Each structure stands twice: as C-alpha cells, then as structure tokens.
Amino acid sequence: MAKITLKNLRHSYYPNPKGPDDFALKEVDLDWQDGGAYALLGPSGCGKSTLLNIISGLLEPSEGQILFDGQDVTKLPPDQRDIAQVFQFPVIYDTMTVRQNLAFPLKNRGVDPATIEKRVAEIAEMLEVTDILDRKAAGLSPDNKQKISMGRGLVRDDVNVVMFDEPLTVIDPHLKWKLRTKLKELHQRVSHTMIYVTHDQTEALTFADQVVVMQDGEVVQIGTPEELFERPAHTFVGHFIGSPGMNVLPATIKDGQALFNGTAVALEGPIHPGTKGTLEIGIRPEFVSLGDTGIAGTVSRVSDVGRHAVVQVTIADTKISAVVNGTPPATGDTVHLQLTAAQTRLYADGWIASTPAQKESAA
C-alpha cells in the first residue's frame, strides 16, 4: 500500500501543445492517503482514464510527477509500480478453474504453494465463490467473472494500489448493487489503497470515502459524498451529482444582493468581493419548497418517483425543480417557491462565489 501524490501533473497527446486547450489533462495536484478508498468521477472524455493510465504507468505525463510514498515513479514501467488493475471487461483465463485464476498472480511471482493456497481461500471466502473454486471460468455468469477479476487484483497483499476502471459497466443493473456492496466490504477488510474510475455517480458515492470530480481535464472538486452534495464548489458538480441535479438560475447582483428574475434571493452568506462574470444561483431541489408566499411560477411537469414527487416549475424561461412530499400540485397550477437560504449559493463563471454565514458562538 502507498500514499499516492500527483504534483503539477499535465498531459497532452500533442507533441508540441500550444495552450490549455491542447491538454487532455490540465494541472492536477492530489494526495491520496495510504489505505483510502477514492473515486475518479466524471463524464466520458473528462480525463479520468488518462489520469488512471498515468498512475498505472501505461502513459508518461507531459509534465509533473507521480510519487508513491515519496518515491518518484513517473518514469517507471507498470511492472515496477506494484499495481493491480481491474478493467471494465473481466480479465480471466477461461480455460483455467476459478482457483487457478485467483492463484495465477501469486504463482507468477514465485510465491510458495502454502501461501498461495491460504490467500486464494481468503479471497474466495470474501467474494463468496468458495463453492465454485474448481469450476472452469468459461461457464461462469458475467457477475461471477467480474468477481474473479476483482479477486485477481486483490489476492496480492504487496500492491501499492488497486485500480478499478469502470468495473461494473457490463454487469446487469440488479447485480450492480450487490457487487458495489461487496467491493466496499472488501476495502474495509483488506485496507488496500483503492481508486475507482467511473462515470456513474451512484457507484462513486457508495464506494469512495473521497471523490475527485473531473470535467474537461480539470479537477473541479474533491470531497466526501456528503460535501459534494451539500456544497458543490462548481455548478457542474451540482448538476452532475444528485437526481435531479442542482437548479441553476440566471442571476444578477444589485446593492450586494443576488437577484433572480428581478426578485432578491437570500443566500447562504455574503457574496465574495469583486464578484463578476456569468452569475448564477444554485440550489438543490431538496431545498426548494412550496408555500403561500415566495417566487411565483407555473407547474410545467410533475414526476412521481415513489417516495416523493419532483415538481418542475417554470418562471420566465427558467425551469426550477422542487422535491415535494405529500400530494403535489397539478400541471398548470400557479405555485410559490421558497428557497432555503442556507442552501442557496451564488456562482460566478461556474465557481462558487458566496460564503456561508458564520454561526454565532455559544455564550
């Protein structure tokens, strides 16, 4: 296991990059602690696979360093980094049994038979595949094949990091939850440093202790799942995480107040001095409620999602979603929206531009 440090990391697939737009990975500085569970989250093309390949040694960065426990490994090949990797499609040998597949990474490194037998038994028990150890891998279901692929990554106890590259993409939806739960349990038991790459917010938020959200080659926020939901640092994070995503409303500033459609909106706290650019107000639907007073609008859609309804309200040309418990209004009704001030934030050019009000200390 290792602490992983990325310093001033940038990468371009062009031989002579001219500017920021030529970089697939813009400057990244990260510290991942030994034994932590991390996720790289973002849409296709955001740079997360490039970053994973740089960490694994499949790609040498244009600029910057990769350190494992303070040792520079930037130019080391993958086989000298002690990394285990689990890919989107299961990497197993169909002609081998499950036992032989799990044992292969250890046997290939000359580990003694007694240790191999012990480790294979431990991993098989963790993965709940003890009863199929002597079956050929070719006949396994897709979820069991991916379990074996995970097991091959976890069977070694001398790895610096285990990396998962979209490991549940090909798994049936009803089995994903089970495998996500199993993977979280495995991390708690083996305590390896793990990095999980995905475009699926549910996978990232249920697995990781810290999530790195990426967009257009940049890291836009790093935080716990709770921090990303409660206080998105960028409108992209607010929109990408949550279902439905954060409401983003066009805004202006007048006399130190944020206005939406000419109406002053109370924010979490003061606006950063000198704020300018494209201004927007962000608030999650969970913190928008219906009341007798507030910003008036017309209900344009009502979606029943089981535990609650998502009511979409149109004000001018802007659509605002609210999570409503109980009986929702009907389409076409006029309603009044109330925004929870402590959860309402101003953003400038996508980045948060308001500060939470300081709580008064107890006397």
TrEMBL record:
One Gene Ontology term of the molecular function aspect: ATP binding
InterPro entries, per the entry: AAA+_ATPase, ABC_transporter-like_ATP-bd, ABC_transpr_FbpC, ABC_transpr_MalK/UgpC-like, Mo/tungstate-bd_C_term_dom, NA-bd_OB-fold, P-loop_NTPase, Transp-assoc_OB_typ2
UniProt keyword terms in alphabetical order: ATP-binding, Cell membrane, Membrane, Nucleotide-binding, Transport
Protein name: Carbohydrate ABC transporter ATP-binding protein, CUT1 family
Signal peptide (UniProt feature, chain positions): none
Similarity comment text for this entry: Belongs to the ABC transporter superfamily.
Residue span(s) of domain ABC transporter: 4-241
Top-level lineage group: Bacteria
Source organism (scientific name): Shimia sagamensis
